[in-house]
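Recap for those who missed Tuesday's class. We walked through two folding examples back to back. For each one, the amino acid string is listed first and its predicted structure tokens come directly after. Nothing is annotated here on purpose, so try labeling regions yourself before you check the end of the notes.
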Amino acid sequence: MTEIPDEKKKELHELVEKQKKAKINWVAVITQLSEEDIKTIAWEIGLVIDKDQIMLPTETEEGKKEKRIQKNTKKIIDYALNERVLRNYIGGGGQSSGYTPYFSGAGDLAIGLAFAGIAVAFAGAEAFTKSHIQKEFGNVETSVCWLDGGFSFSVAKADEMVPVKDHLFQDMRKQYDQNFHYLVPIKQSYELVVIPRNEDKLENENQKKKILSFCEILDNKIGDFCGKIVEQSVTVIEEKRKKVSYSVLLTSGVRAESTKEFINLNKYSLYLSYRTHLNQLYHELVQTKHLPNLVEFVLNNLPNQYQLIEKHIQYLFLELSNRFESWDFKENVKIIQSILHSL
């Protein structure tokens, strides 16, 4: 093979980059290179040969899958931010989206499910405010749920929202690197990332549905457990007439003060923080093979799968207690263990 000048290599790469995918014989005509030369140098300049075509790596089936997963990861990040940055528009002739959360007082109602309902209400509030903010530049009440279960509240201009979300995003990336799936429900991480990565292993749609049904079980059990932890993490420290002060035990092992006006936001933030800890722990246990990936779990089709899932959940909760114990967060451990003993 004759030596191909760097200028020709650059011309070949730029042509394919522009086309993304092209027939080799057509590229040969345009570049005045032989088809054999094109096939030989393709790998050297980062291109892929597939039968009679030359293409960018992103145009292969594997490359397209990775692009789709990257796009889905962006959806996960957006979901995590929208759960944690809550806005209430207070401009525009007195109209308000009214995102203020509430919790059912029914004793037997799992508080985790109440939190899930509130998350939907917040999402609706965000959608409501967006159309109004586009028309006017009023103020926005902004609550940010931080990763340790604390929160901050401020009144910001509509066009100041991007820095608020950017700040939280930087915190998320600093603490979890690229593992943003820790921050969202397990079902969402499987639906958007895990299943697409393993789609070649799945034989039919029923297997996907079964995987997602197990995800729902995990999410519901985790939500219920986190809700119970939250309720025991909040204590009244002072009550005078209509003024109530609270102490909230955060996942960092420290206590923060809250008021009647903000206690529900504090509970919501703390719920998200504990859910993130459990989700992180779940994914790490799967990674280290202490728990099975749900794709493999369904494909193995073991008997008594629902009973096995229950055991996996109990193991997950026990490991949460062990993790907080390793951090020497004694108050958190006491609460988690009291709930474990009541299950």
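Example two. Treat it independently of the first, because the proteins are unrelated.
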Amino acid sequence: MERPAAINQIREACKNIALQFMKIHPALPHLQDEETMKESIKALHEMTVQMETIKKRIGRLERADDSTLL
């Protein structure tokens, strides 16, 4: 697999994960357990931060590739 294809695959996976995270959040209050809801929101936030780190890193890598074309 070439680097641009890998970057696209990772971006698409991050997008799909984010869409799934958005399905979790509104369902949490229906568990009717405050502690579970708080811990789940905290975990979702932490996972989102980590996913954003991945996206930033591949963005930098992509920009570095683009700059070598100049």
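Answers for example two:
DSSP finds two helices and no strands in the chain.
The helical segments are 3-27, 34-68.
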